[in-house]
Structures are given as C-alpha cells and as structure tokens.
Write a structure and sequence with these properties.
disulfide bond, cytochrome c-type biogenesis, antioxidant activity, single chain, oxidoreductase activity, 16 strands, globular, 3 domains, 40% helix, Glutaredoxin, five-stranded antiparallel β-sheet, signal, Immunoglobulin-like
Length: 370
C-alpha cells in the first residue's frame, strides 16, 4: 500500500495531528474478471489537504486502510496496466470496514458499510430513471447524420432536452436533501444542483435544510462561505467593486463606470464558447454604446497567455474596456465564477439587475432598458 498526502506547509502540522487522532477506515475490495497487473487508487480531500493511497489488485482483491477526520466522499479508481479506461466510483469513508464487490469494473461495484454509502446508493437509485431517459435520447441521436445534428431544429431540440434533464435531476436532488438532511451526501448534492452558474436563490434554501452536524463539517463551513459570496452577487445587490489592469497596464476600477449600464463579461482567449459569444457582445455594444451602456471585459487568462488575450481582443473587435484578472484577489473569485462565459448586468447605480444574459436574451434586456 502506497500512501501520499499533499498539503500546504502551514496546514501540515495540524493535518498530521488530526490524522493521529482521527477514526480509522478499512476498504476491502473484490473485483473479479480483471486482468493483471492492476491497481486501485483512493483519493479524497479533507479541508485543504488532498490525501491519496493505492493498493495492488491481487487475485481480484485489494485492501486500503487509513484515517479521516469526518465523513467525506472519496474516489476509487481501478487502473489496469495498458488500459486507458477511466474506471472509478464514489465511496464515503466511515469508521468501519467498507466492502467493495464487483465484476470487471469498479464503477459497477456494490459498496456496503457506513450510513452515507447507503444514502448514496439510494440517491443513485432515485436518479436512475432520469439517467435512463438521457441515455435513450443520446442513443437515438446516434442514428442521425452529422448534417441532421447540425440543423437549427435539432440543436434547439437537444438544448431543450438537456434543460429538461437538468430540471428533472434538480427535482430529485432537492427531494433527497429535504428527506435526508443528516447525511453529507446531501451536502455534496449542492455541487451538482448549482450547475455551472450557481445562484444564491437556488442553493441557500437547500443549504438551510442541512443538519447542524453536516454544516459543521469542513465542507459544510466552506459552503457557508460560498453561499455568502453568492448572496453578495445576487440580483438586487450592489456589485462588489474591483480594480484590474488593462492591456496597457492602466488600472480600471469598476466604480469609475458608475452612471452607465455596465455588462461585466467574464471570458478568456482560450474559451471557445466565449469567443463564439463575442459577436453578440460586439453587436450589443455598437447598438447601445451611445445610449448609456458599456461593457467591461474581465479575462481569466493567465500571465503566460497575456499575448493571446491581447490578440483575441483585436481579432474579435472588442473595443470596450478590457482587464485581466491577475493577482491574489481575483474578481472571478469575488463573483464566484465557476464557468465562462458569464456576465452580470449593472444599472447606473451599480446594482446587479440581471445575470448570464446570452444571445437574444441580452438583446431583449437591453432593448427593454434602453
């Protein structure tokens, strides 16, 4: 068994102490029908520390033991030498012996031991009908040609279906959290429930349902901070101020744009959906720049892609103010940007009045306001 943990030096002493006093877990696995050599890798995060462990699969069996500070989800991955398959499953650590039994793949294994694993199995059972609907739709799509899939009608159908699937999943997730507030499985659901663009109105009601014990976990405390960030950037709140440098090195403060409707657009030169959306922004800017409207582009490019950022500004014809989100205090962190493109529309007083306006939705909102 090979153990490794990665941590910042400042948290290392505390983490080491916690490991000595923490409860123990043992994972005993049996995956038959797997060619050798093969290894099973365990990885999990506790607070700011990532722990990793591994064991060889011998005659279809493996065993991994360790310590943990609190209930936490972990990843178990089976890697067969020479195979590129990503075969993994989720397991919740508990102060007991956890049994993993399966055939050929660990992803299909049954996990027993610990209340959280029982709850996770229940969640997977509840969500299975939605996943089946999705698989059937994707399977039906394999019979279509590339030309048929490229039509506007099919793309609209595909987008509507994806929205309906996500909505169905959210219903299952919300019902599960309400019924089972005492498990960290419900806390983990919030990651998926928020999607790429989590909102305060979406997540706060579910977070409030969680039991005090779940909220007191390291992840529970971190989520409280996330909820606070989302509240500060919710529609109706005054947009948090920030100051960043433009391509010439001159700082631009968001406060300096007060008095106009401002679209804060988070993007990056390497982001294909962002670049595809830029023509929409160019049209909106040209149509409304003389009607008290402007845009502030905030790039998530890194220092080593600065030249690509500057080139993208020129190539895409982005003639409004642009800044790059460098430094320790990132605007993207303040606004809890988890995916791009993402935008926030502010009124002349600096209050957030809309979020994530794309395509026709942006045009409609600006037409309504201006």
């Amino acid at each position: 068994m090979n153990k490794l943990f990665i941590a910042a030096m400042l948290v290392l002493p505390a983490a080491a102490f916690a490991q000595k006093t923490a409860p123990s877990f043992k994972i005993k696995g049996e995956i038959t029908g797997v060619s050798s050599p093969a290894k099973v890798y365990l990885s999990y995060r506790m607070d700011k520390t990532m722990y990793r462990d591994s064991a060889e699969l011998k005659n279809g069996a493996f065993e991994i033991a360790g310590k943990f500070m609190e209930p936490v989800s972990a990843s178990l991955q089976l890697q067969v030498e020479g195979s590129k398959d990503r075969d993994y499953t989720t397991i919740y650590l508990a102060p007991t012996t956890l049994e993993v039994k399966g055939e050929h793949k660990i992803a299909h294994a049954t996990i027993t031991g610990g209340e959280d694993n029982k709850m996770y199995a229940l969640l997977q059972s509840n969500i299975k009908p939605v996943n089946t609907r999705e698989k059937e739709f994707l399977l039906a799509g394999t019979s279509l040609s590339k030309e048929e899939k490229a039509t506007a009608a099919y793309k609209a159908k595909e987008e509507a279906f994806e929205d309906s699937i996500f909505s169905a999943r959210k219903q299952v997730w919300a019902a599960f959290v309400k019924a089972h507030p005492n498990t960290v499985v419900s806390l983990d659901i919030l990651d998926s429930y928020g999607g790429f663009f989590p909102s305060f109105d979406d997540l706060s009601p579910l977070y409030k349902l969680l039991s005090p014990a779940v909220k007191k976990t390291a992840k529970g405390k971190q989520y409280a901070q996330t909820i606070a960030k989302l509240e500060k950037t919710n529609v109706g709140q005054f947009a948090p101020l920030f100051e960043k440098a433009n391509p010439e090195g001159k700082n631009i403060n968001l406060k300096d744009l007060r008095g106009k409707y401002v679209l804060i657009d988070f993007w990056a030169s390497w982001c294909k959906p962002c670049r595809a959306e830029n023509p929409v922004l160019v049209k909106a800017y040209n149509d409304y720049k003389d009607k008290n409207f402007t845009i502030l582009g905030v790039s998530l490019d890194a220092e080593f892609t600065r030249n690509a950022w500057i080139k993208a500004i020129k190539d895409d014809g982005l003639t409004w103010a642009q800044v790059i989100d460098l430094g320790t205090e990132k605007a993207s962190d303040t606004y809890y940007v988890q995916a791009i493109p993402q935008n926030f529309l502010l009124d002349p007083s600096g209050k957030i009045i809309a979020k994530n306006l794309r395509g026709e939705a942006l045009e409609a909102k600006l037409k309504e306001l201006l």
